[in-house]
Amino acid sequence: MKINFNFVEFNFARDLRIGWRQLMQEPGYSAVTVLGLALACAACFLLLGFVAYCLNYNSHVPDGERVYVVKQRINFFPRPDWNTRATLMLRDAALASGVVEQASNAQQIQHPLRAANELHEVRMYAVDPSFGAIFGIKPLSGDLQAALNRPDGLVLTRETALRLFGHTEVLGKTVGAGDDVLQVLAVIPDLPANTTVRWEALGGPLSRALKPEDRTLHPAGQQRGQIFLKLRAGADPARLGALLQDAVEASPMNQSMRKGPMGRSLTGPGVEIRLAALPDAYFDPDLASGRDKRNYGQRASTLALAGVALLILALAMSNWINLATVRTLRRQREIGMRKVLGASAARVAAQFLAESVLVALLATSAGIVLAWLLLPLFADLVDRKLEGFFTPARLALAWLAGVLAGLAAGAWPAWTALRVRAATVLAGRDSNSETVGNLWLRRTLTVLQFATAMALAGVTVAVGWQTWYATNADPGFDPRGLTLLNMPLAKEEQIAGFARAVARVPGIEGAAISAEAIGRDANKITGAFNLRSGGEMRMEMKRASPEFFDLYRIRPVAGRLFSAERDQPTGRVALLNMAAVRALGYRTAEEAIGKLPFAPGPDGTDLTVIGVAPDVRHQSMRERPGPIVYTLTDADSVVTLRTQLDQQALAHAIGPVWRQYFPNGKVYMRSAASVFGDSYRQDLRMVKILGAASLVALALAAFGIYVLSAYTVQRSRREIVIRKLYGASNGAIARRLGREFGLTVAVAGLIGLPAAALAIRYYLDGFAEHAPLGAWPLAAAVALALVAAVGATAKHTAAAIRMSPVQALRS
User: Fold this and answer.
1) Are 187 and 141 in contact (CB under 8 A)?
2) Consecutive H or E run containing 201
3) How far apart are the C-alpha atoms of 308 and 47, rounded to whole Å?
4) Residue 303 — pLDDT band, cuts 50, 70, 90?
5) Helix H or strand E segment including 759
6) How far, in Å, are 338, 723, 800 from residue 729 at the CA level?
7) CB 511 within 8 A of CB 639
8) Which one of 21, 221, 362, 692 has the fewest CB atoms closer than 10 angstroms to its CB?
9) Per-residue exposure over 593-615, b if at least 16 CB sit within 10 Å of its own CB, e if not
10) Is the dihedral angle over the CA atoms 674, 680, 685, 689 positive or is it negative?
11) The pLDDT of residue 417
């Protein structure tokens, strides 16, 4: 048995050498085959790796199936969304239920940390001492529990310790957090990239880094943060969710809101509570459709990527099999000679299987290298920090899959070789047993490949154009020269004083304060208004300083807007946008001026409308502008500067003023124009993914029609030379082949373009305003397909034109 095994090994090695020589004899064929398969292998490796990455979110948490995060949606707001910021008093209600083993709140701390006289932005949470047990955190050094029980205790991840101090031996070192000092008492491992709960530093519930009113183990107010619960084994999460819903319904704040203008007209719960198991949190449909959707995924879409990966591999393998079959038909005389010289059927089959395995291993290796080169670009496409793609186990699995794919793909060419009749081919007659059914199968496959490529290309062009249009649409003001500064946690007089002082800095034309930047939807304020005409209305409120509209150069539709010369920050005047004018029932903007549409508030004062502002784009183009009431403020979250200085020069110019007012605050600035791109990050990501998929699909389609053209020329060579002998010109030969390939693209268009049109319409239904598209995205898809088809068939068309009648008739 050992001798036979070694003999098989020796023969297989010889077959590989023969296969290598065959590949080197036809470098063009070899390059097309290996590179086409390598592209498919790289795409498959990256896509399947990403799917595995997504399916293993939060898998590092022990007993993760028993760990839940509390979700909350506040329906009192006009545009409610699900998120993981819940009312913190629900933790105590969960513990009192008896079904929870451990529970912890987590409040994010906004202060940057100061180490070695430098400020660092760190994602830091104040958590309960049970937090470490819930997430299975084992410290690398120090005492985690002691750190979370002390007001001055601080826990750092390993990477954060390196970033702050340059090394990990940091126990006992201190950092500044606002006006307080914290001491590092523990260092913990870094989190894997695929986790929905991220932290870089932890403090306890009484941490000095928290605001004094938030330092409590048992919050009774309406503070919001994240709540993590570890249920007892066998506990029913649905029962716990119902208990928490009852608790939030019974809360004094909820009852008060129910009786007020914001709740009286509301049907259903004012605040909804649900639980999400940690292993399922990444694919939670509520969170994936909320404001933080960029941090979550959709299970169906992710699994569809696995299907796309396997489809790409299947299409590439079918092209490979087709091309290998064509090449086998060309080698009929070689096969016949080997049979005459005594080669058995097993030896002939083994030769073709070895050649196929060699191609598969070369393509797999090249695909892994290509995937390694493309990983940074792919990580940018999917907007994730990808890790663990190139482990030894995964590489070994890829090569094993390559060998199996090589054996599977080599089976049909081997079977074709076995059916070659030596006597027939050596007598000068082909043994081409290709059936009409097999030929139509090749054509159908090529048509489907081009249909897929055209559909993807058309959708990509449409999505890309709509995204560009939305990103560059007129926001209702000129954003050039406007820079936004996010304010740190500070007293109102500090923010107001900073805005006044920074406006006097040379190179700065003015400064204004607002609750949020135009185009950014993070800080959403809702007001409930009793109307003098009866009834009530919920509207979004936008707070701004008197200088705001002048700084933004927004002109009124009617009346006047806020003015530093005429208005005080405490004035009881208001502005409406045009959507609010319509919602209040006014026929024209002028009709609303000077009116008191709102009844007196709790302080007995009125809001008088002094002007109407245009409908600027506070939200993305997916939503129509809603009713907005603008009120005055002198201190809030964002300061806008108008300046012609670039950001580096601006940071240098305002540095002294910033340090005077916010010595422990880190400067965060960005241009006002850049804000509008944030709303379309997912769309831009989709464009990139669709673009990459379109390129792969076009490459596979081109490879498929390359194979079809090679076979068509091989199969029709006698017909071609007979046409030449009867006087057919080169142009006539080219047109004859072009009609066949053109018909392939035309039929593919009839299949792919309607599908693309439906997908485009479905995508555009999500926008309130559409880019002027017309039919040009579909026309562009057809043009791309034609270019790919012409390029792929050019070689074999040229070979048909150059074909010698004498050589063809002798072959």
Assistant:
1) yes
2) strand 201-203
3) 8
4) confident
5) helix 730-764
6) 39, 9, 12
7) yes
8) 21
9) beeebbeeeeeeeebebbbbbeb
10) negative
11) 65
User: Which of 379, 436, 88 has the alpha carbon at shortest distance from 228?
Assistant: 88
Single-letter amino acid code for the residue at 207: S
The span from the CA of 756 to the CA of 462, in Å, is 9
Give the distance, in angstroms, between the CA of residue 89 and the centroid of all CA atoms in the same chain. Answer: 34
DSSP assignment letter at 264:
H
Helices (DSSP H) in 383-471: which residue ranges?
392-418, 422-426, 436-471
Please give the C-alpha separations between residue 597 and each of 325, 579, 613, in angstroms, as whole numbers: 80, 15, 16
3-class state of residue 315 by DSSP: helix
Helix (H, G, I), strand (E, B) or coil at 154: strand
430 phi/psi in degrees, rounded to 5: -70, 150
What one-character DSSP code corresponds to residue 727? T
Q: Which two tokens stand for residue 434?
A: 């290709």
For the stretch 421-467, pLDDT in tens is: 665 555 555 554 455 655 676 677 778 888 888 888 899 999 999 98
Strand partners, 275: 70
Side chain identity at residue 238, one-letter code: A
Amino acid at 754: P
- Both structure tokens of 707: 């194979």
- Alpha-carbon dihedral sign for residues 422, 424, 427, 430: negative
**How far apart are the C-alpha atoms of 90 and 220, rounded to whole Å?**
9
Q: Is 596 helix (H, G, I), strand (E, B) or coil?
A: coil
Smallest CA-to-CA distance from 455 within 788, 739, 693, 772 is with 693
Asked whether 155 and 186 are in contact (CB, 8 A), the reply is: yes
Write out the H or E segment, with its range, that includes residue 277. Answer: strand 271-277
Helix (H) or strand (E) holding 330: helix 299-330
Q: Residue 189 pLDDT more than 60? A: yes
Look at residue 210 and tell me whether its pLDDT is greater than 80.
yes
H/E/C letters for each residue in 512-565? EEECCCCCCCCCCCEEEEEECCCCEEEEEEEEECCCHHHHHCCCCCEECCCCCC
578-583 LR contacts (CB < 8 Å, sep 24+): 578/612, 578/613, 578/614, 578/615, 578/625, 579/615, 579/624, 579/625, 579/626, 579/627, 579/628, 580/539, 580/627, 580/628, 580/629, 581/612, 582/627, 583/537, 583/539, 583/627
Residues in the chain: 811
Distance CA 318, CA 120 (A): 54
Q: Which of 737, 710, 726 is nearest to 32 (CA)?
A: 710
pLDDT exceeds 90 at position 614: yes
Q: Under DSSP, is residue 785 helix (H, G, I), strand (E, B) or coil? A: helix
Contact between 90 and 78 under an 8 Å Cβ cutoff? The reply is no
Report the pLDDT value the prediction gives residue 237, as an integer from 0 to 100: 93
pLDDT tens sequence across 39-61: 888 988 998 999 999 999 999 99
Residue 10's DSSP bridge partners are none
Helices and strands (DSSP H and E) totals, the chain: 27, 23
pLDDT of residue 621: 84
Helix residue ranges, H only, 558-633? 578-583, 589-592
Tens digits of residue pLDDT in 485-503: 999 888 889 999 999 999 9
Which helix (H) or strand (E) segment holds residue 142: the answer is strand 141-142
The amino acid at 366: A
Name the nearest CA neighbour of 707 among 782, 796, 775.
796
The pTM assigned to this predicted structure is: 0.78
Read off the tokens for 535. Answer: 């009834």
Structure tokens at 106: 């987590």
CB contact at 8 A, 487 and 637: yes
The residue among 746, 737, 730 whose CA lies nearest residue 786 is 746
Q: Which residues of 315-413 form beta strands (DSSP E)?
A: none
